[in-house]
Write the structure tokens for this entry.
Amino acid sequence: MATGSISDLLWIVALIAGWLAISCLVGGWYAGAKFRTFLKAPLSEEVKHLTHVWEKRVNRWTALGLLTAGLSILCIIGWLVSERFVQ
């Protein structure tokens, strides 16, 4: 009985982490598009500052997206292993 609840929990965490990974990677793509837009803009102090800000956001959102994707994969593997031992 306890293994079934762990299995259900792993499945739910895998689904939530998968959707979060997709949304974080979309955020990283959007930040990358803004970063490339600022690279094309005429150079000023404000543009220089915003370029650095958006560059950091690209790295942050992409790393978070990859981290949650890895968590989702680990939870799916755990779910498959727990399903195997339940039967």
